Amino acid sequence: RKEVEQDPGPFNVPEGATVAFNCTYSNSASQSFFWYRQDCRKEPKLLMSVYSSGNEDGRFTAQLNRASQYISLLIRDSKLSDSATYLCVVNMNPSNTGKLIFGQGTTLQVKP
Amino acid sequence: DAGVTQSPTHLIKTRGQHVTLRCSPISGHKSVSWYQQVLGQGPQFIFQYYEKEERGRGNFPDRFSARQFPNYSSELNVNALLLGDSALYLCASSLSAPGEQFFGPGTRLTVL
Q: Taking CA atoms, which of A56, B12, B36, B78 is between 20 and 30 Å from B59?
């Protein structure tokens, strides 16, 4: 079983749609959670950290369910510029290191 | 402020050769991590250094080594290159070992 699992997609949605990505992680001792965005042939960019209470940044909402070991990202009112690969990332932090475990990524294509 | 910088941007080598990749972290960041990303996959953790000491190592062979210098810049060395080492090599910096990580543009290595 992969340590971080995501549906690779692609998700093809029209502009203005709401889309949700899910991610599961295997290690219950995981400490920190993130969503990164990666454009084609570019580096990953931090989109948002994910907190236990859930957090929102404009059109983006991230939620964490520790009991189910599940992370989600919701994008409202999709824009063409949201087209990218979204990486679910977990820091298992067993010994205070920054070893980030990445999922395979979920590809989003927003169409006009 | 300058972000994470990496050099070179692209590199072509042949099997059996050696390569050195370089990374300069964001000013003030003391931790550098290295990741390998092959096409279609999320980045895989190779090493993390904090205050010039190795803090974490991923499942990579001993052909891979790294170090961090007093100015917090870092080098990743790969010996006896294999075709399978062809990938995008990403460097990420963070203030502390478990902190949020910010990625450089990467070095795209092709092994022929």
A: B12
